[in-house]
Amino acid sequence: MGLDLRPRMGDDGHMTSPDAALGWIAARRAVVAERLAGVEARLDAVRTARGDWIDEEHDPEGFALTFEWQQAEGSRTDYLAELAELDAAEARVHAGTFGVCEVCGRPIPEGQLELRPARTTCVACADGRR
Asked: Which residue among 2, 7, 52, 123 is the one 20 to 30 A from 112 at the CA level?
């Protein structure tokens, strides 16, 4: 089954093409991948600073390193989750369902998809107005 190349009409009257959607997804994926690489570098630096063993009670930097580690791990988890969401968005493009609200079935405006290509609901449904 091939890519559905029919443009989708958004609420704002603009057409959303699969090429545009894939472009938005690729652009966001590049941003997230760059941020993830930075977090991985932070984790490597903390791992090196901590060494093989750390006694947080007696090491004045122990708590700071643990805090830095936890922060970086949280960011890493968030970025990996967003990459998974972008994979799902790409699958929706190929299935022909990208840009359709999962709640109400109406088109999601192109501007919202460009800003957040992994979006699965329109603003009204996300806010609980529908």
From this structure: 2
